[in-house]
């Protein structure tokens, strides 16, 4: 569940969840049973032959999304899902220009690397057709929490950097790799409106913030009061199984019927059986409610550490997708790159595994399995507190 064991049997509290992937808990018995039973029945057939495991999961998944988001394409990963979404946006609009956010991460293939806007994840290969808008970063951004001011930058980008028409806009509601950055309030509604006026479609990257992780909502975009045209997802969708998906409207989905679109393993019956089990466990065990209550408790406890440790510059996020940014000086916000490594190592020695991210590599990423308890939260905070005091 929320624990991992090394080869000597020592237990560790997993506060990273395989990069926000293990949502139900490691080796959850119901998910494992579903996967094993499907493996015994049929391991692979390709989507050329319809299988109940694929259809049942697609129907259940679509039911969790608003509006006309009813057509599901399965992939093997978040990178694949975002690649497909970007291609569909370009095909549907007839435009090539895509807008993404600075500091965002969307994958490591050709198209997604272009939309990713962090130099450490970009190889020196041709990347075209993508414009990176000012990031609505509430901690380091020039406009603080004023989402509308950041949105004006995107408006200028469309006006001056494109023909006035765009294929689409892709963004995470909470930037995961970027350091658990929640977009400034008011930003997404304003940007969605502007992008659609320019003929583009809006893509919500829910690879990390989806599947009840934010607690307050099932999907991260719901916290901003918007409805995307395409939603991409992976990670928590399968609790560790290689599985991703693109969900869109029937109208947009039609663009793939002009040619033969095919994914050999996308929609694999074993993976989709596991995905359906994940949805059932989330509902049965009320993991969204748990993410909200335990996440709120944990965020408050982490925030209280700021009074004790000057090295903590910011605590942010929602539910069980939280970030703790370390700085050597709160005024200048100088990233504590070396110090965070020392704290991480000390925490590991004390039995807690935690993630690290952000552009400067100075942000703790707290994304544990959604079965995390308040006792686990207390242990995590106590270990972090002690580790920081030892510096």
Automatic annotation (TrEMBL):
Keyword Signal attached: no
Keyword field: Photorespiration, Pyridoxal phosphate
Cofactor(s) the protein requires to work: pyridoxal 5'-phosphate
GO biological process: photorespiration
Reaction(s) catalysed (UniProt annotation): glyoxylate + L-alanine = glycine + pyruvate
The protein's Enzyme Commission number: 2.6.1.44
Pfam families in UniProt: Aminotran_3
UniProt GO cellular component terms: mitochondrion
Broad class of enzyme this protein falls into: transferase
InterPro entries: Aminotrans_3, Aminotrans_3_PPA_site, PyrdxlP-dep_Trfase, PyrdxlP-dep_Trfase_major, PyrdxlP-dep_Trfase_small
Any one GO MF annotation of this record: alanine-glyoxylate transaminase activity
CDD domains reported for this sequence: OAT_like
UniProt record similarity statement: Belongs to the class-III pyridoxal-phosphate-dependent aminotransferase family.
Protein name as annotated: alanine--glyoxylate transaminase
Natural source organism: Nicotiana sylvestris (Wood tobacco)
């Amino acid at each position: 569940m929320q624990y991992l064991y090394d080869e000597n049997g020592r237990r560790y509290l997993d506060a990273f969840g395989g990069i926000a992937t293990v949502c139900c808990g490691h080796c959850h018995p119901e998910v494992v049973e579903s996967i094993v039973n499907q493996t015994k029945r049929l391991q692979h057939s390709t989507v050329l032959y319809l299988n109940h495991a694929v259809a049942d999961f697609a129907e259940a998944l679509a039911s969790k999304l608003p509006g006309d988001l009813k057509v599901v394409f399965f992939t093997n990963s978040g990178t694949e899902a975002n690649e497909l979404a970007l291609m569909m946006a370009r095909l549907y609009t007839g435009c090539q220009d895509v807008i993404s956010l600075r500091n965002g991460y969307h994958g490591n293939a050709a198209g997604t690397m272009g939309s990713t806007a962090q130099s450490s994840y970009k190889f020196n290969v041709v990347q075209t057709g993508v414009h990176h808008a000012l990031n609505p970063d509430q901690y380091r951004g020039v406009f603080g929490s004023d989402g509308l001011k950041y949105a004006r930058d995107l408006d200028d980008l469309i006006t001056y950097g494109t023909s006035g028409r765009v294929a689409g806009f892709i963004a995470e509601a909470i930037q995961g790799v970027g350091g658990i950055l929640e977009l400034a309030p008011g930003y997404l509604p304003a940007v969605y409106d502007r992008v659609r006026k320019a003929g583009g479609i809006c893509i919500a990257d829910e690879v990390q913030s989806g599947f009840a992780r934010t607690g307050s909502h099932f999907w991260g975009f719901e916290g901003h009061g918007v409805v995307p045209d395409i939603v991409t997802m992976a990670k928590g969708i399968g609790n560790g199984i290689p599985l991703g998906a693109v969900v869109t409207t029937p109208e947009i989905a039609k663009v793939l019927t002009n040619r033969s679109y095919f994914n050999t393993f996308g929609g694999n019956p074993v993976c989709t059986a596991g995905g359906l089990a994940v949805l059932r466990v989330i509902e049965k065990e009320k993991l969204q409610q748990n993410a909200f209550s335990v996440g709120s408790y944990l965020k408050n406890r982490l925030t209280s550490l700021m009074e004790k440790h000057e090295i903590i510059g910011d605590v942010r996020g929602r539910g069980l997708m939280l970030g703790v940014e370390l700085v050597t000086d709160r005024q200048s916000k100088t990233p504590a790159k070396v110090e965070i490594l020392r704290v991480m190592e000390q925490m590991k020695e004390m039995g807690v595994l935690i993630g690290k991210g952000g552009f400067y590599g100075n942000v703790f990423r707290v994304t544990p399995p959604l079965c995390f308890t308040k006792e686990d939260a207390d242990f995590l905070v106590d270990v972090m507190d002690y580790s920081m005091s030892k510096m």
